[in-house]
Structure formats: structure tokens, C-alpha cells
Amino acid sequence: MASDTTPRPGRPLKLLDDEVREQLLEAISHGATIESAVAAAGIGVTTFYRWMERGEQALQSLQDGEEPKPSEEPFREFREAVTRAHARGEVFNADLLRKIAVGGFVVKTRTKRYRDPASGQVVEEREDDIAPPDLRAVTFYLERRHGGSWGKASALEVSGPGGGPVEVAGGAGLAALAERVAESLEEYRAELEAGAGMWWTVWLWRTGRTAGDRVR
Known about the structure:
Blueprint: H1 18-29, H2 34-41, H3 45-63, H4 73-102, E1 106-115, E2 122-130, H5 135-145, H6 147-150, H7 170-207
Helix pairs in contact: 1-2, 1-4, 3-4, 4-5
């Protein structure tokens, strides 16, 4: 629960109980919205942002070479803890996205037992299903991290000869336009397949497999 924000003589101000504080920071680091995290911790959204604002002011005073008031130090520490929790969540999920994009990890394991006809002994074998590279995860990362180069186009532009306008005259003109659109889509599909091939090669190298191996 939230503690009394009026400091008592001789005692430092404590914004939250340790258990509630850790619950709040853990929720933020796991990607919960601020609204959900503070609700789970039992504090109001307005209170949270007021504490963050006071922490920002105390941090700014410290950066300006001024000594912040002792009563404002807990707010600065609170703001820094929340900032670190956000950063931990981003780093964790970025690493998880990278692992999904590259693949090569075990997603399922099966154990087979059979009797060897030659020796009569029971033989146990394990089969692992290995995750292949996920091009969707690669695309998701590139679109959001490098949107200028890899962001989704808002429209597919088809131009006429020399980059000029497309002239449409009757049925023949429409047929030519449809053909140009199909060619543009085919070029785009080839680019996607080339990207998939690159990540497939990386996955084969990481897992020690060959192109002829079966992927379950």
C-alpha cells in the first residue's frame, strides 16, 4: 500500500512498502501498462504520475548542481527505479524477439522406445522439434526499429513509362495496368523470399543442419 507522504521527524520518507514497490516494478518490467501496474499495487494513476513528476524535478536539480531537498530524494529514487524497470522489460522482450527471429531452440521433445531386434534390448531415442527462423519476427523488428528503411508502405505505386502517369484507355489499358500491378507484387514477393532465404541459411548454420534435413 502507499505510505504516508508526510515525513516524520528523524525518519526518511517512504513512498511504498517494500513488497508493494517490488510488485509495481515487476509488473512494469513485464510490460504491464501503468494503469494496470498501479491498480495492482493499490495506488492511483494520478498519484503515480505526481510522484514521477517530483522525481523528475529532483533529478533535474541534481543535474543542475543543486542539492535536492531530503524530502524529494525518495521521489527521485522512485522515478529511477521505474525507469530501470521499463528498460529491463524492453531488453528482455528485445532478446526474446531476437531468439524467435533466429530460431534454433527446442520447442518440443519426444521420446521413442523400441526393442532392438538384433540385441533384444530396449532402445530409447529422443527427437527434438527445432524452431525455424520466424520471418514475421524479423519483419516486426525491422519495421519498428528501422521504420525509415523497412516501414510498411502506405500504398503500392505503379507508374507508367519513365515514371510518368499510367494511361488507361478502354479494356486494353486496364489489362496493361493489371499486368503492371502483378509484376510489382511479384517483385515484392521475391524480396520477401530473399529475406527468408537469408535467415534460413543463418538458422541452418546455427543448428548444424543441412538443407536436406527434415524440420518437424
